[in-house]
Every structure is written in C-alpha cells, then in structure tokens.
Amino acid sequence: MQRNKIPSPKFKYFNSEKLAKDYIKLLYDKEPEKLIYIKATKLCGGKGALKSKSLDESIRNIGKMKVFGEAGKIFLVEEGLEGEEFSYYAISDGSNYRIFKSAQDNKTISNFDKGDQTGRMGAISPAIITNHLSKEIENQLIAKAINGMKKEHIPYIGILYLGGVVVNDKPINIEYNARWGDPECQVVLPTIKTDYVEIVTSCLKGKLNEIEIEQDNKSRVCVVGASRGYPNDYSHAKRKQIHGLENAMKINGVTIFGADITIQDEKFYTDGGRLFSVVAEGENIVEAKQKAYSAIAGINVEGNNLQYRTDIGWRDIERFLRNKKHL
DSSP states of 255-302 as a string? Predict the structure, then answer.
C-alpha cells in the first residue's frame, strides 16, 4: 500500500507484547485519547480487530491477541480513523478487472454499532455513501492495488475484497482480502445478472476485458439471526428448535441462507452462533428492509433464544429519506 501510494492508516507490526506496549505508551503520551486498533494478522472469524480509546484498553487488547492463537501471533497497531466504513469487491485476471456493487456491513452485536465484535450481524448493498466516490475508490484503492501487484510481477487473480472508510469525504483503505466477505456476498452476488461461471472462466483465462458484467438496480438487506448470548456464551441456546423458517422461505423477494443449523426429522435446530441470514430485495433500501424484518419477525427459536439487530441499514435509511424529502 505504501509503495503504491494507496491511502491507508499508519500502522506497525509486532510479535512482541512488550515492544507493542512500549510503542503505544509513546502514542498515548502524545495523544491521551487517541483511537487505535489492535489487529490480528490472520483470520479470526471477523473478531480480530479490537478498538482502543485509551492506554489501558490498548494494553488489554494487546494481551487478547494470544487468545487468537496463531492468527494473533503477529499483530499490528493501527491508527484509528473516525468515519463510515464500506466494502467493495472486484474480480481481477491479473491485468484486467471488473467491479461489483458496494456494500456495508454491521460488525457489532448491538444496534447503532455498539457492543462486542461479531462475525457480522447484517449487511446492505449498495452503500449510498459510496455513490459519489465510486470513481475515486476505483482509481485510488482498487486499480492501484491490482496494477501495483502486476508491476511487482505478482499479478493478482481472483476476488479482491476492499474494506474502506470514508473520512472527511475521502475513501481510505483499511484492509484487502482475497475472498468474498460474509455476509456482504449475500447482498452483492444476487445483484449479478451475468452468468457467474462465465465471469470466473473469463478471469481464469485472462479475458475479463472481453465481457461486461450486468448487475440489477435493486437494493438488498441482510439480517443475521443468531443464538442468544452470541458472540459470548450461547451454550444454553444450542440444539433448540427454530420455528418459522419454512414460512419465511416462501415470501416473495426473500431468501434464507443457512449457517449454524442442523436438520433432524425435517426440523431445524440451532448448532452455533450465527444461525441464518434473511436477505430481502426491493426497489430501494426502505422496501428491502421492510421485507427483511417482516420475514424475520415470523421466526423464533425455542425458549426465546433468537437475537438479531433491528437497525441494519439505518444510515442509508436516513440518507434515502433525506434525499426523498428534498426531491
């Protein structure tokens, strides 16, 4: 990122708790209320980025890296950025690329992005905040990465996942991943009208420049249903029967994606933290959200053991209603 002048926050890597703690003490000596993130360098089920707003909190979060085992053996201390996050996806054959719709996920367990980090509790697509920034995001954060790797003789082939944040109306990179995001893929992939096998085949043959990817104009909202207690102790909620999934599957414009569910005697039972996703489509974000929550309202888990956020898409709902008011 630094070599290719990709806008990104400052960071340092560590494999020593002591050296990391010495470093953050210097940071907080200069800025006592500085926002930083302690991040594991490998996958941790979406829970490896720990937010810190004080020296004591940072020290505790550095200590938590060992909980992630090998994933947290090497970690980084990264400058925190105050802004609104978004996701973007592209597919590259090493020389050419095509871009899919933007998305925005909800990472924490509680409404308005409060509470503990999870593996994600929902997502929307497209993200309105990226509408006027799409060209800048492409030029500064996607093209620079793909072209930079080609110049360094390590051409990137496959799905490029960009996690970004808008700060003062400027898009900045937070991370790249070589995969689709979860649950963002559940609201992005359904928008694609072109045969996905054709897209992948063109990518593998180095011929992405020969196809155009057609995407629909619908909005989509994904609401994740989880076992009560997730992301902490939800053992009491395991092996409980899930009611109402069958009816939700029949609703027009709604798709149910299963996760930690087992099926026994044609009945659904909980078997983990995030149980299923309700994905609804609509002509706009308001219509999609109404469908999603109407569907999940008819689902419950034995013993009142279902939980989900009730505010997925809240930022774009506000934007949409403001824009509509001004028309």
Answer: EEEE-SEEEETTEEEE-SSEEEEEEEEESSHHHHHHHHHHHHTT-EET
CB 99 within 8 A of CB 143: no
Confirm if 295 and 280 have CB atoms less than 8 A apart. Answer: yes
β-partners of residue 242 are 268, 301
pLDDT > 70? residue 180: yes
Chain segment 221-279, per-residue pLDDT in tens: 999 999 999 999 999 999 999 999 999 999 999 999 999 999 999 999 999 999 999 99
pLDDT-above-90 percentage for the chain: 89
Predicted confidence band of residue 327 (pLDDT cuts 50, 70, 90)? low
Instruction: Name beta bridge partners: 32.
Output: none
3-state secondary structure of 111: helix
Question: Which of 97, 78, 101, 98 shows the shortest CA–CA distance to 88?
Answer: 101
pTM over 0.85? The answer is yes
d(CA 106, CA 142): 22
Is the dihedral angle over the CA atoms 166, 171, 173, 176 positive or is it negative?
positive
Structure confidence at residue 49 as a pLDDT band (50, 70, 90): confident
Cβ contact 268:289 at 8 Å: no
Helix, strand and coil percent figures for the chain, each rounded to 5: 35, 35, 30
Taking the C-alpha atoms of residue 102 and residue 89, their distance in angstroms, rounded to an integer, is: 7
Give me the amino acid identity at 79. Answer: E
Torsion of CA 184, 190, 191, 197, to 10 degrees: 110
DSSP 77: E
Reference 280, options 181, 190, 180, 182; nearest CA is: 190
Ordered by where they begin, the domains of the chain are: 11-79 (3.30.1490.20), 84-210 (3.30.470.20), 219-326 (3.90.600.10)
- Bridging pattern class, strands 241-243 and 300-301: antiparallel
